[in-house]
Amino acid sequence: MLSPPNAPKLPSVSVSPSAEIEEGSSVTLTCSSDANPAANYTWYMKEQNAHLSSVNEGPRLVLSSIKSSDSGQYYCKADNLLGSTISDPFPIDVKYAPKLPSVSVSPSAEIEEGSSVTLTCSSDANPAANYTWYKENEDSPKASGQIFNISDFRAEHSGSYSCGAQNKLGRSNSTFHQIVVAGSQKLLSFVTIPVVLLAVISLPVFLWIRRKRASRDSSEPEERADTREECVPDQPEQQEDLQYASVHFSNNRADPLYSNMRAARPLRHTEQQEQCCPEDQRSGPWRGSSCIYSTVNKSR
């Protein structure tokens, strides 16, 4: 027996899967209503301004890779030639791990020693996150809870702080936020600036000393090579370049240096004293010239 024509009855909405909806999963909403002729279906989502916006047509609404922004109230409207009706709101609550937390500090101005400082951590999470506070370079947590209060703030409290937000779906840590007692940065500058100036002043002096030492080291091999030159008068192959003279000094002559020079006698190595080139003539302008030997006799 055919049922009489009728407008759609109040639609019912079911969801699959029926378990808790986590971000990234796929969700299907199905709408059904008793109507003759069969109803047409339209899906709506209630926005924050309470306005209903159409999101899909058909008995099924598929939300693939659902996001946190998909959370909200959903409605199904059924209509035919005899009328229309809309379902009760169906809530979609998407669960997700904490987003990157942010940290705020009060007071935000310079922190005076002995004052009270309040740090507040906030993170978008569903379910709500639990918060833990950390100080840089310290392993153990400093505090727990969304608000971290430091009364009687001292220099030893200065440092970088971060908070961690965690729920059953995951965890996220904030970046470090530096908190410094007013005046400690000035002290740091007072110590740092002289050190930097000293380094700047010392660098040219160091480079000058290094260049001086390098120049001295490069000249030493030549000097050592010069000192190895020796006068060897007895070697036969060198006697062709040697010249000898005998000089006599007389007290009654006007020019004692040149007037009594005469030809040199044959060299007697066993009787006469040989004088080699002065050491200071082995380098400089005299370097490389032939040695001149002389025998000096002084008459009284």
Automatic annotation (TrEMBL):
Keyword Zinc set for record: no
Region (Disordered): 216-238, 258-288
Keyword line: Membrane, Transmembrane, Transmembrane helix
UniProt signal peptide: none
Pfam assignment, any one: Ig_3
Basic and acidic residues biased stretches: 216-231
Annotated protein name in UniProt: Ig-like domain-containing protein
